[in-house]
Amino acid sequence: MSSLSIKEKTTCYHCGEDCKGQPIWHEQRSFCCFGCQTVFELLNEKDLCDYYSFESSPGNRLSHFIKDKYLFLDEDEIVSLLLDFQSEQLSKITFSIPSIHCSSCIWLLENIHRFDDGIISSRINFSNKKLLVDFNPSKTSLRKIVELLYQLSYEPDISLDQRSTPNKSTDKTTFLKIGIAGFCFGNIMLLAFPDYLGIEVDSEFVAYFTYISLALSLPVLLYCSSEFFLSAVGGLRKRLLNIDLPIAIGILALFTRSLYEILSRTGPGYLDSLAALVFFLLIGRWVQNKTYEGLTFDRNFKSYFPLAVQRITKGIKKNTLVTNLEVNDQIEIRNEEIIPCDSILMSKEALIDYSFVTGESIPNRIQEGSKIFAGGKIKGPATRMTVIKQVSQSYLTQLWNHASFEESTTTNAPSLIDKISQYFTPIVLFIAVAAGGYWWVADESKVLFVVSSVLIVACPCALALATPFALGATMNVLGSHKMYLKGSHVIEKIWRIKKIVFDKTGTITTGANQKVEWHGSELSNLEREYIHALASQSVHPLSQQLVTHINSNTQLKVSKFVEEKGKGVEGEIEGNQIKIGSASFVGIAQTQSEGSFIAVKINDEVKGYFEIKSQFRKGLKKMIDGLSEPFGFAILSGDNDLEKENLSKFFPQNTPLLFNQSPQDKLAAIQKYEKHERTMMIGDGLNDAGALKTSYVGVSVAENMSRFTPASEIILYGDQLTNLPKFISLANKSREVILIGFIVSFIYNILGLSLAVAGLITPVIAAILMPLSSISVVLLSTLGVKFISRTLSLK
User: Which terminus of the chain has fewer Cβ atoms in its 10 Å neighbourhood, N or C?
Assistant: First the structure.
């Protein structure tokens, strides 16, 4: 009598793989290898076993650990090439981790600081499978962090070009699934050809054809449609009813009914419809993605915000876009300007503020030959450096969106689509059940088709796509006209603006064609060169107008440079103490002047003052008239009130015109306005940083200079300021486009559901109509915004 031994499959507690009859037991848990056991012990030691509660067997398998594999990361030269930023107390790096695959991965990797006290924080970009780590190099090392990730089965893909553009290779899996579904669909239709023609065939092969069709349907069900089931199950685990749930139920209903008919020999089933349904759903999603890519606005629009620096070629300085900088170019960065790319310091020393990168406000003093990282801000005299890496605009965008500049409280109301989506799928399921109940009584043969059609045709995709594509298209149009927004949420904030507040100098006035007059004792050529050298260290509009007016090529070194925002600058040149700025800054009484007043003091002698008569931007009056109906106005100027009469000609009566405003005064004024209505502050981004940050929407006006401010939500080129009425009108009309998209989507779903409930469309037709509805809404949203932009003469 023979005995039959049955081997029970034992799976690994960590990775879920088969232990193949030889499990390693530890704390009453089975593991397939010592690697998985090691990872579990690490998690258990740090009380991180909640990791296993997010997914069943969430871990990646670690079959072996190679000691000293990352020994090369002890080399400082290699480490410096890999790091995004490096200082004594903070280093930043971005890892590419291909094995990230589920919510437990995100949870674990964002808690790795609990394994190593030197890790400050870690953040996951799931879509790109990137891990951003901030760590203290005095407490840990890059090698230790990488080895920790390796031990946790999340080995990073390390290469010296990891900060380069991500690979955009085609998703071969999608094409493979479409190909298999198409192959199975075609062959199942071929085997069912007699049924289509109504031909009765008495042959033993008919049954075999049916079973062959069933076999062909299995890869369609188990592989090609797997993404719908995985998404649906994933949503249920998170207690969410997503749109893939009705689709998965519809597919499963078709297969179950077909399997029943074939096994009971009561019919051939609906396997051809099942294969066709999955085939067209996959094609529909692929077409949707391609449509989105074809219509895609420049999603990296933020990479092109106005940022330029002075490049030095053969001793001549010239403003150059940072995108045109090459390795070994020599550049000069002035006080308060952002360093756009990693460089080597050529000046004797420099004081650099890395608060945009680290959040710390204490500047670092570095010496000649030291490495400077992108994102630092010069504090003090203009500094020369040599470029060692081309600019990474995406990195500068991260600085613009640094957490230090985020609002402490959310100001955005929940979007309409968020409110609708939580009810959409339950309503669809209810309609499907109700329709199924009706047809069960009226005509049982139609139940399956009606229920499947309802589940598939009712897709909220079109509804969900109306907002992002309309706002994205709006941002693209604005970006093409040199108005750059931090994100689409800024457009929604513009809808609520009631008051616009302007700075004067550098905002509604321009440095072009300014009239500069000197009043005082005659200046020698050397004294004029002193003034030029000191003024050239600052990016304030008045300082730059002086530089243009004097137009000297002499390269004098400035030491002990100090700039007081809104007041003036001072420094030492060849042993002489130079001061230029307001009367109070220089230490004299204010003199009557018809324009901006810049006093000059050399050593202890006041030489006189420059009078710069304001030149208002061309089209200013037309701009104010275009904005006057829906908005109120105010002027906050740091200059004297001698331009009050001229300004009053541009603005409506009773417009507050406030002069001699310090940065603190401007901040207080905005806080006062914000108590009553939403305010847009428009300034030059230098003296107005506090006001820009406090206002509901801050707009920094830039004149092709490297002084954008993270405190603002919008960066606008100066020569585009007078187009502001058109820009705001486009933003407001984008809301109308979104509402039209919602209406079209609702009409589609109502008609589609009506036809499906009435049994007038099949699941296959529903699968074709679903992506078409999404594409139509995308086209409507994108082309609608472009049409409106053309009517506003914004091509």
Answer: N
Give CA angle at 524 (521, 530), nearest 5°.
105
Model pLDDT for residues 14-33, shown as the tens digit of each residue: 566 666 666 767 666 777 66
Residue type, 263: L
> pTM for the complete prediction?
0.64
- CA 552, CA 524: separation in Å to the nearest integer? 13
Confidence grade of residue 413 (pLDDT, cut at 50, 70, 90): very low
pLDDT tens per residue, range 113-172: 877 889 998 888 765 678 889 899 999 999 989 888 887 777 888 765 444 444 444 467
Residue 250 and residue 350 share a domain? no
Residues 234 and 214 in one domain: yes
Do 378 and 320 reside in the same domain of the chain? yes
Number of domains in the chain: 6
Same domain assignment for residues 79 and 200: no
Helix-helix angle 763-791:461-480, to 10 degrees? 20
Burial classification of residue 126, based on how many CB atoms lie within 10 Å of its CB (0-12 exposed, 13-18 middle, 19 or more buried): middle
- Say if residue 83 is in the same domain as residue 109: yes
DSSP category for residue 519: E
- Judgement on whether residues 362 and 263 belong to the same structural domain of the protein: no
Half-sphere exposure at residue 235, Cβ-oriented, CA atoms within 13 angstroms? 16
Q: Are residues 181 and 285 both part of a single domain?
A: yes
Burial of 45 (0-12, 13-18, 19+ CB in 10 A): exposed
> Domain of 678?
488-509+617-712
The predicted-structure confidence for 563-581, as pLDDT tens digits, reads as follows 887 788 999 998 899 999 8
Which residues neighbour 730 within 8 Å (Cβ) at sequence distance 6 or greater? 474, 477, 478, 785, 788, 789, 792, 794
Contact 615, 483 (CB under 8 A): no
570 neighbors 559 (Cβ within 8 angstroms) = no
The answer to whether position 130 is within a domain reads yes
Residue among 558, 498, 566 at smallest CA distance from 529: 558
Examine the domain organization and report whether 178 and 287 are in the same domain: yes
